[in-house]
Amino acid sequence: MADQGAPAPASTPEELGLTAVGLLGGGVIGGGWAARFLINGIDVQLFDPDPEAERKVDEMLANARRAWTALTDAPLPAQGTLTRAATPQDAATGVQFVQESAPENEEIKRSLLASASEAAAPDVVFGSSTSGILPTRLQSDMTHPERLVVGHPFNPVYLLPLVEVCPGEATNAESVSRAAEIYRSLGMKPLVLHHEIDGFVADRLLEALWREALWLVNDGVATVEQVDDAIRYGAGLRWASMGTMLTYRIAGGEGGMRHFMAQFGPALQWPWSKLTDVPELTDELLDRIEQQSDAQAAGAGVRELERLRDDCLVGVLQGLRGRDYAAGAVLKEYERTLRQRGAVASS
């Protein structure tokens, strides 16, 4: 079966003239971006006021190298250099791309983007990792606001390929195209959206599932482990290859999606979910989630859990690569560019 979402041919960072990037924020997401850029041989200038930022990035980079060494035998380029920038302006000086990954606070993000855009060359495109703030709002204080796009990734950024690319009202087409090319050169799958909307696409879907999970725990219907088991032993395995809509198309059998909707569409009217309501995050509910989550982790620390997650993702990606399908097709195209870069470097 042909993959209708098959990746477009990717350029290498060298072909795009991408040698250095500025990063604004080095937390879980920003650190993941740093690792992906560094793994791809691109220098990183990181601004983050957290004195522990470099240590956190180094630990994430170690996890990234471990995962990619297991994932592929294609030659990775020489690792880029990480430099600590004193100011947002310093991070954006002398680079070809800037990625902002500050906390999900509009005021903080707008301030950082405004400061960094004063120092960046006019043609440098900016990506924001925001998971829901509209790009039109984020670009409003920038110098050359037409170069901002949302570039919303998924954790772990160094391993998962999806990145949602969304323009604001002032964004020009060239910036969208440039951002998508850059992300693709890193082995990612840019999902280019044509209309901005709160939460974009993936997080709106995830938020609905998260809301329902909170209700199930809040009402004592399920534990956090049972919620996870309901996904990882069932639909989650299908979603890795088929997604949601194609899964339902198959469930319709020979009659297709119309037959499926005739069978199960009426159930959408039944009171199965509480998607429009959110349980109050009381201390009691938060304590319950925390205690059950800690028990589920069984004493494993966050780095240990990250490595387990990465090992499982590597196995899934390798399986999909064998079929040249979904995220596996993205990986296969990226490996082609890695071998191309290796051949150039050795010639």
Overall number of strands:
8
From N to C, what is the helix and strand string? EHEHEHEHEHEEHEHHHHHHH
How are the strands ordered across the major sheet?
Answer: 3-2-1-4-5-6-7-8
Class by helix and strand content? alpha/beta
**Beta content:** 5-15%
Which consecutive residue ranges, at least 5 long each, have pLDDT under 50? Answer: none
Q: How much helical structure, as a percent, in the residues?
A: 40-55%
Largest sheet: 8 strands, mixed
Structure report:
The chain is an alpha/beta fold and 347 residues long. It has 2 domains: 20-200, NAD(P)-binding Rossmann-like Domain (Rossmann fold, 3-Layer(aba) Sandwich); 202-299, N-(1-d-carboxylethyl)-l-norvaline Dehydrogenase, domain 2. Helix content is 50%, strand content 11%. It has 13 helices and 8 strands. It has helices at residues 28-39, 53-71, 88-91, 106-119, 135-138, 173-185, 202-218, 224-242, 245-251, 256-264, 283-297, 302-323, 327-346, and strands at residues 20-24, 43-47, 82-84, 97-100, 125-128, 148-153, 162-167, 189-192. The protein has an 8-stranded mixed β-sheet with strand order 3-2-1-4-5-6-7-8, with helices on both faces. Helix 5 links the parallel strand 5 and strand 6 (148-153). Helix 2 runs parallel beside helix 12 (302-323), helix 9 packs across helix 10 and helix 12 (302-323) packs across helix 13 (327-346).
